[in-house]
User: Fold these one by one.
Assistant:
Number 1:
Amino acid sequence: MADSKGNSLVIKIVVVALWLALIIPGGRQLAAHRNYEEAVVLGPGVTEVKKLSDWAPYVANTPNDCSIYVLDSGVPGGSMLVIGGTHPEEPAGVLSAVTIVENVVPTTGKIYVAVRANRSASTVTRPGDAYPQFFNINTDFGKRTFRMGDRWSNPLDSWPDPEVYVHYPSKQLLAYMDVRNLNRTWPGRPDGMITERTTRAFIDMIKAENIDIFVDNHEAELEYSVISTIVAHQAAADVAAMASMMLSAGEFNMGMEFSPTLLHGLSHREVGDHTDAYAFEIEVPEPFLDRVRGITDEALLLEGKDEFVMRAGQAGLLYEKIDENGWNIHERVGRTNSTIDMIVQMFAMFYPDKPITYESLPMRNDIVANGLGHYLLDPAQAEADRVVYE
Ligand SMILES: [Zn+2]
């Protein structure tokens, strides 16, 4: 009797010890990712760094009070807001925003940039899908490390999810987890859950600053039909169609489609409906997001090469081409930047009274030729007050 009691106690102690041996190092990794300070260096064009809560006090002291980088030429003109990191598992959108902050010098009008529009979603990945926690970009001075993220806000910041997410104000029913999806909670509300509050904060900012052009950077899986395209609100359709034609006649194919009028919560629908800004979403290809992908690692995230996705393409299951060269991060960031630039140029053609001009935006051909890292600045070489941590 005594022996079996002793044995069961030993078994319990061993089980608890094994459990702790798994949970402590695992938890430490998750905490290190959540608390990692991601450097953004202020380029020569940045005149001010504000917080989203400067326009919307109801996001102060939340994980989503992200930095808003202001590039003000001092010359009256139009204004543009570019947001990266709506979906932090789409790194080209984030890195495009970083290249704007670190390189662009405005010469007419004003540019606002959010690198981490949903900061909370950048503090969690998908361990169950074996996502890498970080990714590194090789630069002229070494590596720059960025947080990999998820599509949805961190449940630690937004819990519990409802049984069904009732979109405000349309009352459209959406999947429960999309109450944490920054591209399903527009236009948001100040007393909603954190992701709804974040989109409402951007709406308030867009109105207060009279933003003319709103661009939401994304990437898409090749199995999804909305890819290599600009999705535009109907008010912005002429500008988007011209940009699509000019790009497709030149360096690369970029389509254009209308934002569905009855599908609510998306940025290109609600920003266009609730503000005076012309709303655009850019989607470039990211094989990492495809469900049929192989090993889900940093190499796939950055190089975009995958034999299984290629096989899906051979079977006619994809909406974009892929070959053994894949879709690397240089191509994806480059296309995003060149598309933003073309939208700005076409907007200036239609609305010459609201010009936005600038220098030194790295374009697709530059980035593909020189590598993305060539356009990232060295935080160690910058003045301390010219480095911001996201
Ligand atoms: Zn996305």
Number 2:
Amino acid sequence: MSTEPVISVRDVYKSYGHGQVKTPVLRGVSFDVQKGEIVAIVGQSGSGKSTLLNIIGSLDTCDKGKVKVLGRDFDSAREKQLAAMRNQDIGFVFQAFNLLDHLSCIENVVLPSVFTHAKASEAHEAGMAALTRVGLKDVAKRSPTELSGGQKQRVAIARALYSRPKLLLCDEPTGNLDTDTGREVIEFFAELNRDDEVTLIIVTHEERLSSFAKRIIHIQDGVIHSDESGAKA
Ligand SMILES: Nc1ncnc2c1ncn2[C@@H]1O[C@H](COP(=O)(O)OP(=O)(O)OP(=O)(O)O)[C@@H](O)[C@H]1O
Ligand SMILES: [Mg+2]
């Protein structure tokens, strides 16, 4: 029995705008990602990388084509099922961290528990485990506003890990970090992939991050220009 890919994207089209003035962003994109892969998505600014990532995460919809992620066919899945998948099976990491400043770090990390109605004590325990994993249990009660960029990103990663996702979608995760902190984040991704078999999709401009990936998909003018595996040792 062959295993089903974690992500299947088939002939996906996406335009923005209305009526006559539609700007095509994705023009027939197809690829599969298998469990445990680390895939970098690269391409010029405006080439559609974030749009593609958002479609895979079901944060946005495509105009045409088929998307299937973690066994859910987006055509037939109900919004409730997709919301559950976003909340429990997919972790999102954004360049801008997207932390809520009026909450403490631990409150930010356990935010997904609001939707699952988890017991507060269990949520706290799982949240502290996630913060410990990124080396930040000591800042649990502090506001994100008191943290450095790298610490904020690690809190955001802890939040993404809170539900023990099978798939991590990262959009420029090291974009706001200095070299050393960026390296720490990459090492942490490697560990997650190795130990927990988390599938990683990373949109990046950074050479270092794309060379860490085992496969690089290059998007250009809304289509896949190249899709290469095992490019480096
Ligand atoms: N919500 C939106 N409404 C209208 N146009 C949009 C919207 N989101 C993105 N676009 C346009 O779609 C194109 C692709 O945007 P996208 O954000 O996917 O690019 P990107 O490859 O992630 O770029 P960057 O590297 O700068 O983040 C751009 O031309 C952008 O202006
Ligand atoms: Mg982008």
